[in-house]
Design brief:
The protein is of the alpha/beta class and 154 residues long. The chain is built from eight helices and five strands. Strands 3-2-1-4-5 form a five-stranded parallel β-sheet.
């Protein structure tokens, strides 16, 4: 069986999760699968900006993964989709960066976004709302998962 390797947008929380006791095991397994090529990673300048203020070990992991990742540019299409999420009230303006991560994943043709942000991104009430706006805006649906749901546990 020839399965397509999923292209996954990684938000900033996953890089920090690699050094957080609660999220470390799944985050490290996720990055291992990226290094092995069983997952294709996509990052953005938004993630790069957020990592700038992170501890050195997070910056070092980001730099390593950056070298083997595709890069999503912040485009007019992504900002327009972000604004649609905000207008729909999926998140408040205080969480506009989270909405932009979802928008970037969507317009960058990723099959999913992976995040440890359970309040504004990986939330059972918000996922169908993001995808509803995607559909209304003529965009494809996006899978929204935590690394734990994506990694190979075998």
């Amino acid at each position: 069986m020839n399965m397509k390797i999923p292209q996954i947008y990684i938000d900033t929380s996953v890089f920090g999760g690699a050094f957080d006791k609660e999220f470390q095991r799944a985050s490290l397994q996720f990055f291992k699968q990226i290094r092995e090529g069983s997952l294709l990673s996509v990052i953005s300048s938004l993630v790069a900006e957020e990592v700038e203020i992170a501890p050195t070990k997070v910056k070092d992991l980001f730099a390593e993964i950056f070298e083997i990742s595709s890069f999503a540019q912040i485009s007019h299409e992504a900002v327009s989709l972000q604004e649609a999420y905000l207008k729909a009230g999926i998140v408040t303006p205080n969480s506009r960066i989270d909405a932009l991560h979802v928008a970037l994943a969507t317009v960058s043709d990723c099959s999913m976004i992976v995040s440890w942000n359970f309040k504004h991104i990986v939330h059972y009430q918000k996922i169908p709302l993001y995808n509803g706006i995607n559909q209304m805006q003529g965009c494809k649906q996006i899978g929204i998962y935590s690394p734990l749901e994506v990694i190979n546990n075998e």
